Amino acid sequence: MKTKTQGQRTVKKPDRSYRLVQDLREVNKRTRSRYPVVPNPYTLLSKVPPQHQWFSVVDLKDAFWACPLAKESRDIFAFEWEDPKTGRKQQLRWTKLPQGFTESPNLFGQALEKILQAFSTPPRIQIIQYVDDLPLSGEDEVREATIKLLNFLREKGLRVSKGKLQFVEPEGKLIVCTPHAVRNELNQKAEKWLTDSRMLKYEAILIDSDDLTLEVNRSLNPAQFLYGEPADNLIHNCLEIIQYQTKVQGDLEEQALSEGEIIYVDGSSRCLQGKRMSGYAVVDGKNMQTIEKGKLPSNWSAQTCELYAPKKALEYLAHKKGTIYTDSRYAFGVVHTFGKIWEERGLLNSRGKGLVHEGVILEILEALKLPEETAIVHIKGHQKGVTPEIRGNNLADQEAKDAAENGAERVMLILTPNEEKLEIPKFSKAEKKEL
């Protein structure tokens, strides 16, 4: 089975490293799920005796990749990868349990449970298992028990993440997944007669009631009392979460940076004497000199040209810091909001069809990873004035029009997954031996 090329992407982690992920939603749809063996967090925490005062939490590194994948199942997770620099395509497949597969946590949890059966737990020590995390607790210091567990895991070929290891601490932190009843209530479908406008009216009446007060419910599950009194500080900031979920890159800003390069970009597509002409320009905002400009295919729309221009600017800012100014609301929205949403939807619109500018969008999402730090700022176009922003934007607009009219003809082709013919991966004997 072969997945689409855009299904393989690198996700930037908080420590600035990258994680390779694969879109396995189609595989997951065709997978008959087993009964989940991941324990309920409340049941899990209830196993920790209240008198235990010392904790260690062992986080296994690349846990799923410690489980070899059966040879007859490897073709299911095959995919094609194209080198963005050389354009060379390779057909690859997973030989280990892949991330993104719905059954990976269950399969790994069962394998780890069998391995831990051979471990001799010291007296008065409690070890619990939650996917690839192993919390360890005891009344007294758990240093010797933790070292014994680490040595045991090493003998079994499992690696531990040093950066995430919590070693002999009075408090232990464990990240768990738990359902939220609030989300179920918000997603509950109303009856057919209850329209959105009528629902809004009822909510307004409810909130304006004098005898009604909205308060935060502080009811707790009994297992949460193991941690003592609930903290008064907020668990998270909603605005920060929304910003994180809509940002393509964590270091991408909407306001100009205080340092680095200053770039103005623009794309042009207009009809002159019955013939459409398209082009782009990238201008240095410090010395008002053109960095790059060129002619684009005549069948490109204005939006496509507006997307292509900041993509070239991002490539110019590779491993640098800089601010890019554009007068295109569409390009600004793609890099700051729409691109992340479309990427999570598999580059499909609300009707389930492929995007018109899918190829350019994929390229600009990849180009956003190149600069060390960047800001893409929207500026109003076609203004009169002498400020640096107005001068730079007008110069980029003029240079883009000149490139479209007088530039050398360029033949460019951007393929989208809908245009590519997907083939079944074929491996030679040498490749099969390597896999």
From TrEMBL:
<feature type="domain" description="Reverse transcriptase">
    <location>
        <begin position="1"/>
        <end position="198"/>
    </location>
</feature>
<feature type="domain" description="RNase H type-1">
    <location>
        <begin position="257"/>
        <end position="405"/>
    </location>
</feature>
<dbReference type="GO" id="GO:0004523">
    <property type="term" value="F:RNA-DNA hybrid ribonuclease activity"/>
</dbReference>
<dbReference type="Pfam" id="PF00078">
    <property type="entry name" value="RVT_1"/>
</dbReference>
<dbReference type="InterPro" id="IPR043502">
    <property type="entry name" value="DNA/RNA_pol_sf"/>
</dbReference>
<dbReference type="InterPro" id="IPR043128">
    <property type="entry name" value="Rev_trsase/Diguanyl_cyclase"/>
</dbReference>
<protein>
    <recommendedName>
        <fullName>ribonuclease H</fullName>
        <ecNumber>3.1.26.4</ecNumber>
    </recommendedName>
</protein>
<dbReference type="InterPro" id="IPR036397">
    <property type="entry name" value="RNaseH_sf"/>
</dbReference>
<dbReference type="GO" id="GO:0003676">
    <property type="term" value="F:nucleic acid binding"/>
</dbReference>
<dbReference type="InterPro" id="IPR000477">
    <property type="entry name" value="RT_dom"/>
</dbReference>
<dbReference type="InterPro" id="IPR012337">
    <property type="entry name" value="RNaseH-like_sf"/>
</dbReference>
<dbReference type="InterPro" id="IPR051320">
    <property type="entry name" value="Viral_Replic_Matur_Polypro"/>
</dbReference>
<dbReference type="GO" id="GO:0006259">
    <property type="term" value="P:DNA metabolic process"/>
</dbReference>
<dbReference type="InterPro" id="IPR002156">
    <property type="entry name" value="RNaseH_domain"/>
</dbReference>
<dbReference type="Pfam" id="PF00075">
    <property type="entry name" value="RNase_H"/>
</dbReference>
<comment type="similarity">
    <text>Belongs to the beta type-B retroviral polymerase family. HERV class-II K(HML-2) pol subfamily.</text>
</comment>
